[in-house]
Automatic annotation (TrEMBL):
<dbReference type="InterPro" id="IPR029028">
    <property type="entry name" value="Alpha/beta_knot_MTases"/>
</dbReference>
<dbReference type="GO" id="GO:0006396">
    <property type="term" value="P:RNA processing"/>
</dbReference>
<dbReference type="Pfam" id="PF08032">
    <property type="entry name" value="SpoU_sub_bind"/>
</dbReference>
<dbReference type="InterPro" id="IPR029026">
    <property type="entry name" value="tRNA_m1G_MTases_N"/>
</dbReference>
<dbReference type="GO" id="GO:0005829">
    <property type="term" value="C:cytosol"/>
</dbReference>
<dbReference type="Pfam" id="PF00588">
    <property type="entry name" value="SpoU_methylase"/>
</dbReference>
<dbReference type="InterPro" id="IPR001537">
    <property type="entry name" value="SpoU_MeTrfase"/>
</dbReference>
<dbReference type="GO" id="GO:0008173">
    <property type="term" value="F:RNA methyltransferase activity"/>
</dbReference>
<keyword id="KW-0808">Transferase</keyword>
<comment type="similarity">
    <text>Belongs to the class IV-like SAM-binding methyltransferase superfamily. RNA methyltransferase TrmH family.</text>
</comment>
<feature type="domain" description="RNA 2-O ribose methyltransferase substrate binding">
    <location>
        <begin position="4"/>
        <end position="80"/>
    </location>
</feature>
<dbReference type="GO" id="GO:0032259">
    <property type="term" value="P:methylation"/>
</dbReference>
<dbReference type="GO" id="GO:0003723">
    <property type="term" value="F:RNA binding"/>
</dbReference>
<dbReference type="InterPro" id="IPR004441">
    <property type="entry name" value="rRNA_MeTrfase_TrmH"/>
</dbReference>
<keyword id="KW-0489">Methyltransferase</keyword>
<protein>
    <submittedName>
        <fullName>23S rRNA (Guanosine(2251)-2'-O)-methyltransferase RlmB</fullName>
    </submittedName>
</protein>
<dbReference type="InterPro" id="IPR013123">
    <property type="entry name" value="SpoU_subst-bd"/>
</dbReference>
Length: 250
């Protein structure tokens, strides 16, 4: 299904965020103001075609009814296979003293959290993310903004079965570590050296029971305050940096 960005300023922001665009649809009734002219200049510079269309075309594709006479259609995100992520991890490990990180997201649904996880994963040098293809976030136009553009450099595998992907990672030499509150092991005491697949659970229920049963390691972040928990993006960032700390410590 096509993903559309609607409205003059959101389309301009999409160009600035380097969202891959297939086409810009401009209503044949729209007056050429400064914003429209800016969109046309950016589209020409980036080689994005501009189609003049009737209002009905825009109305049929608008989800919020706020297109202002402008819609941009994004290109589909190029998901990769789990094998490609494993191969990239092996290549990374060979050049970085055997360390590699893959992040698995167990049915996370919040797009803002997803983008923040992607941004942190790219920052620590993770070689890929794994997400389910159902009941989960997907890479969409907003991900480029919430990840500060990091998604453009982060391979993502969309898989039908997380457990099967975990088993493939294990066979490739990964230890699978679940971030979960259902353990007494604090993450600082968990051995995260080498090739690690870090599993983060969804916002309401955490890592599912079935996925937990296939993990090797279990760790939690200590909480000294009165708040019950961190959100998944904050927790994932802390866990990823603990992996990095352990692997680059001298």
């Amino acid at each position: 299904m096509a993903d559309y960005i609607e409205g003059k300023r959101p389309v301009i922001e999409a160009f600035r965020a380097r969202v891959p665009l297939k086409a810009v649809y401009l209503g044949d009734f729209v007056k050429r103001d400064a914003l429209v002219n800016d969109i046309m200049r950016k589209a020409k510079r980036e080689g994005v075609r501009i189609d003049m269309v009737p209002r009905s075309f825009l109305d049929d594709r608008s989800e919020r009814g706020s297109h202002q006479g402008v819609l941009a259609e994004t290109k589909p995100y190029p998901y990769v296979g789990i094998g490609e992520i494993i191969a990239a991890a092996d290549e990374y490990a060979a050049a970085h003293d055997g360390r590699a990180l893959v992040v698995m997201l167990d049915h996370i649904t919040d797009t803002g959290n997803f983008g923040a996880v992607v941004r942190s994963a790219e920052a620590v040098g993770a070689t890929g993310l794994v997400i389910p293809n159902k009941r989960s976030v997907r890479v969409e136009a907003s991900t480029y903004k919430t990840s500060a553009g990091a998604i453009a450099a982060m391979p993502v595998a969309q898989v039908s079965n997380l457990v099967q992907s975990i088993e493939r990672l294990k066979k490739a030499g990964f230890w699978v570590a679940a971030a979960t509150e259902h353990t007494d092991e604090v993450i600082w005491k968990t051995n995260l050296k080498g090739k690690i697949a870090l599993v983060m659970g969804n916002e309401q229920e955490g890592v599912s029971r079935l996925v937990l049963e296939h993990c090797d390691l279990f760790a939690k972040l200590p909480l000294e305050g009165t708040i019950a928990s961190l959100n998944v993006a904050q927790a994932a960032t802390a866990c990823m940096y603990e992996w990095l700390r352990q692997n680059i410590a001298v």
